[in-house]
Design a protein that fits this description.
Layout lengths: L2 H25 L12 H4 L2 H17 L6 E4 L10 E12 L2 E12 L2 E5 L2 E4 L5 E3 L3
Antiparallel strand pairs: 1-2, 2-3, 3-4, 3-5, 5-6
C-alpha cells in the first residue's frame, strides 16, 4: 500500500476510533465495553467537554511544564459533578509548531480517568490535539 494510502487509512482509523470511544459511553454494555461503565467520560456531555477544552486552552497558554490547572463542570447543567486537572508535561517543537504533552484528568462518581495527548498551537492561536 503506498505511503499516502497508509497515512489516510491510519488517519481514518484514528478518527473512527475516537468516535467509537465517545459512542461507547452510551452503548458500553451492548458493545461488550462494560469496562467504560461509570467512568467519567460516560457522564460527560458536550458542555462538560467544552469546559475541559476551555481549561486545557488556559493551562496550555499559562502553565509551566508540571503545573496543574483545576477544572470542573459547574455551570454546564450536568447533574453529575465532574472535576479534574490539566497538566502540561513537556513543551517541544514539531514541524515549526509549539507542541506540549498534556495530562487531562477527570473524576466523577468516585472514578478517575486520565488521557495523555499531545496538543499543538495552530496559527489561529488555539491548541489542537495532534493526530498520532
Amino acid at each position: 500500500m503506498p505511503i499516502t494510502h497508509r497515512t489516510l487509512a491510519r488517519a481514518s482509523f484514528l478518527t473512527l476510533a475516537a468516535g467509537a470511544l465517545v459512542a461507547a459511553s452510551t452503548a458500553a454494555s451492548a458493545a461488550n465495553l462494560g469496562f467504560l461503565n461509570n467512568t467519567p467520560i460516560t457522564y460527560m456531555k458536550q458542555r462538560d467537554l467544552q469546559a475541559l477544552n476551555d481549561a486545557a486552552q488556559i493551562a496550555l497558554n499559562t502553565k509551566k511544564d508540571g503545573e496543574s490547572l483545576d477544572w470542573d463542570n459547574k455551570g454546564t447543567g450536568n447533574t453529575v459533578p465532574i472535576n479534574g486537572t490539566v497538566t502540561p508535561q513537556e513543551t517541544f517543537d514539531s514541524g515549526g509548531l509549539k507542541c506540549r504533552k498534556v495530562t487531562l484528568v477527570a473524576q466523577a462518581k468516585g472514578q478517575t480517568q486520565t488521557w495523555m495527548p499531545v496538543a499543538c498551537k495552530g496559527s489561529d492561536g488555539k491548541w489542537k490535539l495532534k493526530k498520532q
